Amino acid sequence: MARIQDGGLDNDTLQHLRSRATQLLLKEDWREYVAVCSHIIDAAASVDDRRVLCSALAHRADARARLGDASAGLADCDAAIAVEPAHPGALLSKGALLRGLGRYAAAADCFRAAALASGGGGAAVAEARQLAEQCRRLEAQARSGAVDLSEWVLAGFSGKFPDLAEYVGCVEVRRSPHGGRGVFAVKNVEAGTTLIIAKAVAIGRGVIPDASGSDEKMFVWKDFVGKVLEAAEKCPKTAALIYTLSTGQERQDELAVPDMAMFRKETEDDSLSDGTTAGKTTRTQEAVQMDRILKVLDVTCLTEDAPAADVLGNNGVVNCGVGLWVLPSFINHSCHPNARRTHIGDHAIVHASRDIKAGEEITFPYFDVLVPVSKRREASRAWGFECKCDRCRFEAEDSILGHEILKLENYLLSGGDIGAVVMQLEEKMRKSMVKERQKAFLRASFWSAYSALYDSDKLMKKWGRRIPSEALVAESVADAVGGNECVLRATLRGSRDGNGCGNRLEVEDKVVRIGRATYGKLVKRHAMRDLFRLTLDAANKFNL
Ligand SMILES: C[S@@+](CC[C@H](N)C(=O)[O-])C[C@H]1O[C@@H](n2cnc3c(N)ncnc32)[C@H](O)[C@@H]1O
């Protein structure tokens, strides 16, 4: 029991509690730390020691934030601010909590108030101002989706991941002809436009050598599942978001279309309901539905080692990552996709990889789509669905071409001359007057043959004059599957060789267009050039 003296807590008691709190802080034992802070708060309140009361409330708020209890943390900050409106510690803690909830404008106000309250021009003031500025930038980014990663890219992706805010662009979840729900564009968007920036509910990561067995992967998976369950337990809103996802066991027409407001950043009202009685009521009434979450994770988690992550996000450290990003998990697969995702730290950025019309469904590839239809069918079956996208339908339903495709596939498999395969396919498409869009589909399906041919000086000497240029085929394939590293590399090589690309400015425009379609509008032109160099370097390494 704390001893009390006139005008506040007695010094010995306070000193003892403070040193206990410091020990717990160093051990990061947040639960015990909260208990000690509560002790100080009760004692300080009973003797009306406002100075001690406010700093203990601010410290408890920080610890509660660490424990994922943002609502209780905010309540502590508000209690301190009610006693002392210009308490720098409480204002800083509240700013940090609001920033974590994505309420950047309110967070910036708190940091600004903390700078004013600290007074003078010391390091604390400078830090509070810096935090206010960071929140101002994040607020602007959360509204526009405009991200500039140029500096980070130019620094070789080194250092801390750039700060990102969650963003929901002109997209909406609707019922999809592909199955269940899907994400749709509500406006026309240009290739490269950012559609969604989503923060992961949780990510499991491990540095696993390629040859490692399934035990290590299982370890990463278990760690990931544990983190998702913990996040759902701590925050009812997170649990509610996870429950919008499919368990894979519902009938497609049973799946409800969620309200888009769920995915937008928190409003004042949301945070109040999360922060006070209403939030707590939900938490105690509803235990986390563990089985349901486990089934959801089986269907919806995304691997972080997507092709774009190799260049734009893993900092060369992580080579196995699995995560749950809720809104991107509503995106269906297509072999004629129009979007891609890039991973930066804990955020997934989904951007248009082709121009998209209002009302069109947004899709990305769940597996390699630069392969013939038979291979894609195997992959989609492994996912538990039959892909009926327009590309699959065309390749499966055109009986004359279907026969030809099968012949070419077999010929390729038996080690036949790649140049002859490409020649025959081009001839057949010309004779059958196949439309450009469908030519693009078939070229994408036989991409391995085309690229092996362009890679070989010997084969190019033999067939080069009788087949379309690398740049032309790359542009055509980008129409089928959107921008990606393979077509970008081919476009870069093709444009360097100047074969059939047009004049210098046209060539540069084409390259930048495919670059944006591949990496999104995340970097300025000068940094894009660096990405081009890396893309070509990666190809050279691969070819060695
Ligand atoms: C990540 S979820 C996508 C969202 C899902 N449609 C929903 O309503 O929750 C993946 C599941 O969606 C379905 N799906 C995705 N792409 C599809 C496609 N092209 N054709 C049929 N079903 C698809 C499959 O059931 C797949 O297991």
UniProtKB/TrEMBL annotation:
UniProt domain SET: residue ranges: 169-367
GO biological process annotation, one example: methylation
Pfam families recorded: SET (PF00856)
PROSITE patterns: SET
An example molecular function term from Gene Ontology annotations: methyltransferase activity
Keywords from the named record: Methyltransferase, Transferase
Protein name: Histone-lysine N-methyltransferase SMYD3
Species, as recorded: Zea mays (Maize)
Gene it is expressed from: Smyd3
